[in-house]
Amino acid sequence: MMITESGRVVGIEEDALWVETVRRSTCGSCAAQKGCGQGLMNKATDGRRNQLRVLLGSQPSSMFELDEEVGISIPERALISGALVVYLLPLLSMIAGMGLASNYGSGDGVAAIGALLGFMAGAALVRLHASYIRNNPAFQATVIAKDRPSVIDCSLVNASPHSE
C-alpha cells in the first residue's frame, strides 16, 4: 500500500526531485489537544515545510520545472521500517552500550558514558542505513502525478509493483 501526498518542486536533480510538502494536522478537532505532545509539536512548527528527495523512476527530469505541483507516493512499509530504524535502533544501542559499560566498570558515570557512546553508535548506524537505501525504490518516495496532484488515480497508487 502507498501513502500519497502533494507538494511543490523546489529542486531538480538528474534522477530525483526535491519536493516541499506542507504538514497537515487534525489537532484542531481533537478533544485532547491541550494534553497531547503531537498537538504541541504541531503548534511549535506551524507553517514549517518538509523537503523530500523523490525519485523520478523512468520519467526524465526535463519534464519538471521549479515551483510545479506534483503528486508523490511512498510505500507504507518504508515509513514503518524507517520509524523503527530512526527511533528504536539508537535506543537499543544506548541500552546495550550502558550494559556493556556497566560490565567493565562500576558507577553511574561509567554507565552514562556507555549509554552516550551506544547512542552515538546507533545514530551512526541510522546514517549508514539512510545512505544505503538512498536510491532504493522500495524505500523512496516517487512521483506519481504531475500538474494536478489532487487528481491521483488510486488504482496506480494501490497497485502492486509485481502485478501486471
Strand order of the largest sheet: 1-2-3-5-4
Helix content: 40-55%
The description of the largest β-sheet is: 5 strands, mixed, barrel
> Number of folding domains?
1
Helix/strand order, N-terminal first: EEHEEHHEH
Total beta strands: 5
Structural class: alpha+beta
- From the alpha carbons, calculate the radius of gyration and give it in angstroms: 20 Å
What is the molecular shape?
elongated
Count of alpha/pi helices: 4
Spans of at least 5 consecutive residues with low confidence: 148-164
Describe this protein's structure:
With 164 residues, this protein is of the alpha+beta class. The chain has one domain. 41% of the residues lie in helices and 23% in strands. It contains 4 helices and 5 strands. The protein has a 5-stranded mixed beta barrel with strand order 1-2-3-5-4. α2 packs antiparallel against α3. It is elongated, with a radius of gyration of 20 Å. The C terminus is likely disordered. This is Protein RseC.
